[in-house]
Amino acid sequence: METIVIKGVNEKVYHEVLPNGLNIYFYPNTKVNKFYITLKTRYGSKQTEFKRKDEKEYHKIPNGVAHFLEHITFHLDGKEADDLFAPYGAYINAFTSYETTTYVVNNTRNFKECLDNLLYFVYTPYYTEETVEKEKGIIIEESKRGDDDPNRIFYRERNKSIFSKSNVREKVVGTPDEIKSITLDDINAAYNTFYHPGNMYLIIGGNFDIDEAMNTIKKRMDTFKFDEFKGIDVKLPDEPRKVNMKENIFPAKVNNCRISYTIKLSVDDIKKTGLSLKEFDNYMELLLTMNFGGTSEYFEKLIENKICSYGSAVGTDLIDNIFIINIVNSPIKGREKDFIKMTEEYLNNLSSDEESYKRKLKVLKANYILSFENPTKVVDRIGSDLIYFNEIITDTLEIGNNFTKEIGEKIIKSIDLNNKTITVMTPIDK
User: Fold this and answer.
1) Residue 289 in 3-state DSSP?
2) Between the N and C ends of the chain, which has fewer C-beta atoms within 10 Å?
């Protein structure tokens, strides 16, 4: 078993790969009562055209199959997956994003049973024409509810502002018509391609025994037969570097306006800096915290000038070959233009001052170190690292310590401030 050391915090993650290709990661922590288990596949809603490398023809499926598959995986022959966990009082759930589908179990007891049942129901597909047709009505209702959810509407419209080709423009669950068109063949094609252990991660954190975990995993996985995993080919559109729309203003059933100021970069832009993707992402997070975080001048002016009632949500995202910078807030009525103007002003004058950086870095370091007291956060971070970077990022603190003003200026120069889109969700006039 490989030991992965998280540098600077004296924490260890243990890694093992089964003969069938399943990557297993353990983060034991006996200081907490709970354990947290996730089984994750590299398959989300954006992958709609794909094949196994040993296949000749691509499968082309409707939007929404990944989410649909997540739903019906909970159906077993004569029972539901939830029934397996009810006697143990465990929390069981699953969720689908653009990038991945994740199954989750957590509890304070019955670790062995919870782990075994999770592996059993995910790797025991029971898909029939009847279950597919029955589930369509349930998921169509979920899709319709999403059309009334301001958060989902806002981020879907934001994605349409940014992207012109990527499937992240579409609903994760699919539209009612797309859901109606899903067939059993679509479900089987997706499952047989993406639910091979070689395309999946099992990540466990919290209070559990590693030996018991490995014994349980091997015993259960030995009951399944898998072909050799030869890889997957996925067709994804080549997303242009330029934003799709400079501005997207739309009404919704909300009380307050919400605005996203978004800048779009390509991975090619990042490569020109000479930094790795993980370094760029780490430094960008720190630069944004410096310039827009809760102790920044920007934050103070937003509040003092009564432009917003609270600080902006600032973050980044990586989708295929595109890197996104987001600044989101709900300005006080009548101050929407002031929010956009002020945000633009500070973006045009980003600071990479080393002293300010070092002060912010101390706070971020402290938060990072404290996060290891919460195994759920560690497990989620491991999963995110694997999906986006294909490795666990072990040198976060070292990367932070290596920052210089020159690096900051190099990053700032890589940002094309003209390649922006402003998404505005406004209240419907009553």
Assistant:
1) helix
2) C
Q: Which residues constitute the domain of residue 294?
A: 247-427
In the chain, what is the straight-line distance between the N-terminal and C-terminal CA atoms, in Å? 63
Same domain for 203 and 265, yes or no, is no
Q: What is the pLDDT of residues 113-122, one digit of tens each?
A: 999 999 999 9
Cα→Cα distances 414→239, 280, 355, 419, Å: 18, 10, 22, 11
Reference 25, options 182, 203, 234; nearest CA is: 203
**DSSP letters of 21-39?**
--EEEEEE-TTSS-EEEEE
Domain boundary among 234, 258, 293: 234
Rg, Å, the chain Cα set: 23
- Whether 358 shows a pLDDT value over 80: the answer reads no
Tell me how many domains the chain contains. 2
State mean pLDDT over 282-307: 88
Residue 196 has a CB neighbour count (10 Å cut-off) of 22
CB 100 within 8 A of CB 40: yes
Tell me if 239 is assigned to some domain. no
What single letter denotes the amino acid at residue 71?
Answer: H
* DSSP annotation of 429: P
Q: Are strands 35-41 and 101-107 parallel, antiparallel or unpaired?
A: antiparallel
The backbone torsions φ and ψ at residue 256, rounded to the nearest 5 degrees and listed phi first, read -125, 150
Query: At a CB cut-off of 8 Å and minimum separation 6, what does 81 contact?
Result: 73, 74, 75, 92, 117, 121
Whether residue 189 sits in one domain with residue 43: yes
Which of these three, 234, 267, 301, is where a domain ends? 234
Distance CA 30, CA 17 (A): 24
Q: Is the dihedral of CA 269, 271, 274, 275 positive or negative?
A: positive
Q: Residue 279 belongs to a domain with what CATH number?
A: 3.30.830.10
Predicted model pTM: 0.91
Alpha helices by DSSP H, listed for 228-326, are: 267-271, 277-292, 297-304
Neighbouring residues of 338: CB distance < 8 A, sequence distance ≥ 6:
305, 307, 331
What's the mean pLDDT when you consider all of the chain?
91
Question: What would the pLDDT profile of 168-190 be if each residue is shown by its tens digit?
Answer: 999 999 999 999 999 999 999 99
